[in-house]
Write a structure and sequence with these properties.
Elements: E1 4-5, H1 9-18, H2 26-35, H3 49-58, E2 59-60, E3 65-71, E4 77-83, E5 89-98, E6 103-104, E7 107-108, E8 113-118, E9 122-124, H4 133-137, E10 139-142, H5 145-156, E11 161-166, H6 176-187, E12 198-202, H7 206-215, E13 220-224, H8 230-236, H9 245-259, E14 263-269, H10 277-287, E15 292-298, H11 313-326, E16 330-333
Parallel strand pairs: 1-2, 8-11, 11-12, 12-13, 13-14, 14-15, 15-16
Antiparallel strand pairs: 3-4, 4-5, 5-8, 6-7, 9-10
Helix pairs in contact: 5-6, 7-9, 10-11
Length: 373
């Protein structure tokens, strides 16, 4: 029988309640496992006898393992290749930002280094975005809530994680229940992350956006818009056919009205496709009634066969200037991190390591998005 992750909150809660065990014992169990990654169940102190029996028979401390770890040369980025219980692989990426850089009100910024973890929600993705390598994998499987939380457990041993962004492999809102359950676990002890420090990204799964605020109040929403009109969206994002732009905008309006939160708009810059001045004006008009932050993303070609080219710096600058000055929309250009460990936006595609390779070495991996908040 396949054992379940102890970080699968609904499973352990259900099993404990059925056995007459207080489900609140889940919290000290999680805390102990995080602090003692190689522990066995009998080492955890002060649990009811029935809890030890149940844990041995149905749960594992971790169902995934950290297979490989890569660090960028500048120390800002760490990439974790995580092996799941079924043999599949996903990646999580730790990005470190120094909040003291630059000025605030003419004075040095307070704070220090903060770490953001980019998490995967699926193995592969069924959205098929033509500029993203993950889409070329097709959809393999959903992650369980425990497998999602375990990415945070592995990363927490390397850095003090302050922010979570669901921008790794997969469409989070296509694995809605597991993502919601995982986020709820992250809000509890011992993780105790703030909902405002968790961002869920989506290509625009309208029916899920419509219920997200009620299920996860305070959690931020990022939308991979990537085009200001439906025709271009369908050209580069096949899933857009199922989520027409007007219906998406209606759902975002409802989300903003109920949540009173800014929405993050992700916009990849593709040379000659969606980066013209006309497109900037179309985007500005589309979003002028919303409270948004637009994040322009330099495109990173996917190997030598990519059908797209990267927009010029001048095109990106002009695009940003139009949105800022004409439409008064806060617009940033994404900072690329971890490029020397294949850490560029939209290029994640995990291949199972070749068994002929030396232990501990893997095929070079392409990587994910890292929203700069």
């Amino acid at each position: 029988m396949k054992l379940k992750s102890v970080f699968d909150a609904s499973e352990i809660k259900s099993e404990f309640e059925s056995a007459g065990i207080n489900p609140n014992f889940m919290i000290p169990i999680w805390k102990y496992v995080i602090q003692n990654p190689d522990c066995v169940w009998d080492e955890i102190p002060s649990l009811p006898t029935a809890a030890y029996t149940l844990l041995h028979s149905k749960f594992k401390t971790l169902t995934s393992s950290l297979h490989s770890l890569f660090h960028s040369s500048d120390g800002t980025t760490s990439k974790l290749l995580i092996k799941l219980q079924n043999g599949a692989f996903v990646e999580a990426v730790i990005m470190r930002y120094d909040t003291r850089l630059g000025l605030c009100g003419g004075k040095p910024r307070p704070g220090g280094v903060r770490s953001t973890l980019c998490i995967s929600s699926q193995v592969g993705c069924k959205m098929g975005c033509t500029f993203c390598a993950t889409g070329s994998m097709g959809f393999k499987s959903n992650l369980t809530s425990g497998e999602i939380v375990e990415q945070l457990v592995h990363a927490s041993r390397l850095a003090d994680i302050r922010n979570i962004v669901f921008m790794g492999m997969g469409e989070p809102l296509n694995n809605y229940n597991a993502v919601v359950e995982a986020v709820r676990a992250m809000l509890k002890q011992p993780f105790q992350l703030s909902p405002k420090r968790i961002t869920i990204s989506t290509v625009g799964v309208v029916h899920a956006i419509n219920k997200l605020h009620n299920d996860l109040p305070g959690v931020s929403l990022a939308v991979s818009l990537h085009a200001p009109v439906q025709e271009i969206r369908c050209q580069i994002m096949p899933a857009a056919r199922a989520f027409p732009l007007q219906k998406l905008m209606d759902s975002l309006e409802a989300f903003q009205k109920s949540s009173n939160q800014k929405i993050f708009i992700e916009y990849i810059m593709l040379d000659g496709v969606n980066d013209q001045e006309e497109n900037a004006h179309q985007l500005g008009k589309l979003l002028k009634t919303f409270e948004v932050v637009i994040n322009l993303i330099p495109f990173n070609p996917i190997g030598s066969t990519s059908q797209f080219n990267t927009s010029t710096k001048q095109s990106v600058s002009t695009f940003q200037k139009i949105l800022r000055e004409t439409y008064k929309i806060r617009t940033t250009v994404r900072k690329e991190m971890g490029q020397d460990i294949s850490g560029a936006c939209g290029q994640l595609v995990v291949n199972q390591p070749d068994n002929k390779r030396a232990p501990g070495t893997v095929e070079p991996l392409r990587d994910i998005e890292d929203l700069l908040l």
